[in-house]
Specification:
With 373 residues, this protein is mainly alpha-helical. It has helices spanning 3-32, 45-50, 52-58, 67-83, 86-91, 93-109, 117-141, 151-156, 162-168, 170-185, 189-193, 196-205, 224-228, 251-255, 273-293, 321-327, 332-338, 354-357, 363-372; strands at 211-214, 262-266, 269-271. The termini are far apart. Bound molecules: iron/sulfur cluster (SF4) (2 copies). One iron/sulfur cluster binds next to helix 13.
């Protein structure tokens, strides 16, 4: 096996590993609750951007976001400044899922489709609009308002059953379905057209000194690099890839048959794909381990110990009604009234599961109302 093929498999292996780990964490979060396993929102660097305004103005984070999410955001920012959108191309599990379905599509249909250029160009601006609206409104409302529309959040809740996700987040689930179906025919549809994190990374990544560069003298003009690029950049006819769309996945480099014709470069310095992969992993994971060992990397709320009192807005979905009433120092009857819980729901029911016993009950809305009374 030559080195390029090895790196290609290594990249796929790492993406698959991150996807499995995150999917497992999402499942455990559903089963064991947010007090023991972080939510998908806390594990996504984009939550850090959504919480940035609240952090700088009040020193606090918005709901479901913790210091670890802010650290993940800061690490991603550094990674993008150095190596462009490497987070998207080498780490992001949602990108990996799209690549997996692209592989399925390629295996079944033996071809990939590309939207007409004019439509493709217009649609690519959509993600910047999504970024603006998502972050602007999250800063204004100090909340993860986008969760019901977020396909990644819908994916993370699938272990609850498709019906349950459909009841809670029909838009998010529809976008997830369209992303999967679209990925079978088109490459990285969500990344290219809708992902706000990708849009942010693309803008910041423009200042990165490293770019994929093609050596005209060594190039065989076979066009394989353009054909394999998951975001459809015309590598074969470019000298340097400066586009904000490049996810630095190294696919073009790894598929190029002419040695040295394509490489990631900064001036005279070239970086081999294996080194790119190693440096990206190191830049991302070493700070996580360091901040974890320093005790500042927190991704879930402090557990509520017996006898400790909490505010209404600190009531969590994983608490039972009885635990939440005790922690908020309320009589159980008062708690039922304040949170508008039907009397038929037993008090050992988890707050987030009340809706299963009282259809139409919305825990987050009830918490907001209870907090404003
Ligand atoms: S240009 Fe190369 S590195 Fe950039 S996205 Fe396309 S295949 Fe990946
Ligand atoms: S794959 Fe390599 S040889 Fe073929 S066109 Fe692209 S840069 Fe040139």
């Amino acid at each position: 096996m030559n080195l390029h093929r090895f790196v290609k498999y290594l990249r796929w292996g790492l993406l698959a590993l991150f996807t499995v780990l995150i999917t497992w964490a999402a499942y455990l979060h559903q089963v064991l609750g947010g007090g023991r396993i972080p939510s998908i929102h806390a594990l996504c660097p984009f939550g850090g951007l959504e919480s940035l305004y609240s952090f700088f103005t009040t020193g606090t984070f918005i709901g479901k976001i913790f210091s670890g999410t802010m650290i993940l955001f800061a690490i991603t920012l550094v990674l993008v400044i150095v190596f462009r959108k490497s987070f998207c191309g080498l780490i992001c599990p949602f990108g990996a899922i799209q690549e997996f379905f692209a592989w399925v599509g390629r295996t079944v249909f033996h071809k990939r489709l590309i939207l007409p250029q004019a439509l493709d160009r217009v649609l690519r601006y959509l993600k910047y609009l999504v970024l603006l609206v998502t972050v602007g409104y999250a800063w204004k409302t100090a909340g993860l308002w986008m969760a019901p529309y977020d396909p990644w959040s819908a994916y993370a809740h699938l272990s609850d059953g498709v019906k349950a996700v459909w009841n809670e987040a029909p838009v998010g689930l529809t976008i997830l379905g369209l992303t999967i179906a679209g990925s079978i025919l088109y490459d990285r549809v969500f990344c290219k057209y809708l992902c706000p994190m990708g849009a942010f990374n693309g803008i910041v990544g423009k200042i990165s000194p490293f770019k994929v560069a093609r050596n005209e003298d060594k190039c065989l003009h076979c066009g394989l690099c353009s054909k394999q690029c998951p975001v459809n950049l015309d590598v074969a006819r470019s000298e340097t890839i400066t586009s904000a769309e490049c996810i630095n996945c190294q696919t073009c480099v790894l598929n190029c048959p002419a040695e040295g014709a394509l490489l990631l470069k900064e001036g005279r310095m070239t970086v081999q794909p294996l080194v790119v992969l190693f440096l990206v992993m190191a830049l991302f994971f070493v700070p996580i381990f360091v901040s974890q060992s320093m005790g500042v990397y927190q991704l879930r709320p402090e557990p509520v110990s017996r006898g400790q009192s909490i505010q209404i807005d600190e009531v969590r979905g994983y608490m039972t009604i009885r635990e939440a009433a005790e922690a908020t120092r309320m009589e159980i009857k008062t708690f039922y009234e304040k949170f508008q819980i039907p009397e038929t729901v037993p008090d050992d029911t988890k707050m987030k599961e009340i809706k299963d016993k009282a259809p139409g009950y919305d825990f987050h809305k009830a918490k907001e109302t209870a907090g404003s009374k």
